[in-house]
Amino acid sequence: MNAPELEQTYGFEVFPKRELTIVRGEGAILWDDAGKSYIDCTAGVGVASIGHANPRLADAIAEQAKTLVTCPGIFYNDVRARLVEKLVSIAPDGMQHVFLCNSGAEANEAAIKFARHATGRTQFVSAMRGFHGRTLGALSATHKYRDQFEPLIPGFSFVPFNNLDKLAAAVSEETAAVILEPVQGEGGVRPGSADYFQAVQSLCRERGALLIMDEVQTGMGRTGAMFASSHFGIQPDLICLAKGIAGGVPMGAVVCGERIVAEIGIHGTTFGGNPLACAAALATIDYIEEHDLCAEARRKGDLLTEALRGINSSRIREVRGLGLMIGIELKEKVKPHILGLMEKGVLALPAGATVLRLLPPLVITDEQLEEAVAAIRESLSD
Ligand code: PLP
Predict the structure, then answer these.
(1) pLDDT in tens, 316-373
(2) How far apart are CA 66 and CA 48, in angstroms?
(3) What distance in angstroms lies between residue 102's CA and the mean position of ligand 1's atoms?
(4) pLDDT value of position 382
(5) SS3 (DSSP) at 183
(6) What residue owns the CA closest to ligand 1's atom 5?
(7) What is the dihedral of CA 184, 242, 158, 156, to 10 degrees?
(8) Buried b / exposed e across 99-119, counting CB within 10 Å, b at 16+?
């Protein structure tokens, strides 16, 4: 049996699959099992920010694998120690501690528990179209994908995103935290405004609620700043990270401000903070800093946005985004275009039924971006 047959037979098919078997990558290029190359505008859904098969990351992983792969939280570890220090040093002002875990959903799970623990409150407010993960706690904060799994954790309510009045009406003295994405990713690549986030922060402080920014997709340079929260000049109480943090090695993190206290026993994880993932994260962050990938994400994001806005097509409703997190909202279904682009050698993502989402590696070259735009132009032109 070939790879699709084996996966269909023995795997668990919870994803809508494309007819494509990816076997290799380098930078922003992926190859299938027949040797055809693709410009990757998915980056493993925003994960491979520093590119596929990045030699610096590969060396760090190999070196750490030969030294120490696992070390539970009951012991101190040199690599983990360097990573938590590094994360606090690059985080917005006021951040003091880091909890390391293994995924975005796990980061949000931890943040929800920390917020309940710190405030003694059980109510949460999050946004319609928001996405925070598929585990039951993270799903409780998520507006979609929940119907088949009710009852979820009680106490979560949903308000329209980027609408202060609705949020103000929902946040009370019972609210433990407000959970928001800086740019809604799965919900259609919708950036919130600086005014909105600043007002949300003030409101939370006034009512004693915490502000959790879910930067699982936006974090680590993707939007043109290490943390998208910095664009808005806010200092959240908790920032959740995953995806791009360790270049593709599974890792999640919750970076916490002074109001979060986590004493022994309130949370834990076997794999979280393992030296292998920590070494990968340190190499990834170093690479982002040394190659100025935040500035590159801004520059290439501007380039890409301008080129896409220049496409003359009645199918396009809007091009929007932040840095290299870009959505093209169509007036029609996006799926045929995703499949058409794949034929043309460009891999892209949907975000809902009508938005084409581009999350290329931050190391994508200008030429590769131009090629991707040419294919998109061809696909979307009237
Ligand atoms: N939060 C956001 C904003 C996400 O985009 C995602 C994944 O797409 C998650 C959380 C869940 O992350 P994971 O799939 O690593 O559990």
Answers:
(1) 999 999 999 999 999 999 999 999 999 999 999 999 999 999 999 999 999 999 999 9
(2) 23
(3) 11
(4) 79
(5) strand
(6) 217
(7) 180
(8) bbbbbbbbbbbbbbbbbbbbb
pLDDT score of 245: 98
Contact assessment for residue 222 and residue 164, using Cβ atoms and an 8 Å cutoff: no
Q: Closest by alpha carbon to 256, among 238, 242, 244?
A: 238
The rounded percent of the chain whose pLDDT value lies above 90 is 98
What structural domains does the chain harbor? 3-53+292-379 (3.90.1150.10), 57-290 (3.40.640.10)
Q: Which residue has the tokens 């003359």?
A: 312
Q: How far, in Å, is the centroid of ligand 1 from the Cα of 34?
A: 31
pLDDT tens across 64-79, in order?
A: 999 999 999 999 999 9
pLDDT tens readout for residues 151-162: 999 999 999 999
| Distance between CA atoms of residues 78 and 95, nearest Å | 21
Confirm or reject: Cβ of 139 under 6 Å from ligand 1. no
Q: What is the DSSP string of 48-86?
A: -TT-BT-HHHHHHHHHHHTT-S---TTS--HHHHHHHHH
Interatomic CA distance for residues 272 and 275, integer angstroms? 9
> What is the rounded CA–CA span in Å between residue 95 and residue 64?
28
Q: End-to-end alpha-carbon separation of the chain, Å?
A: 41
Report CA(67)–ligand 1 centroid distance (Å): 30
pTM, entire model: 0.98
CA 103 – ligand 1 centroid, Å: 7
User: Is the bond preceding residue 151 a cis peptide, omega within 30 degrees?
Assistant: yes
| CA 370/CA 248 separation, integer angstroms | 25
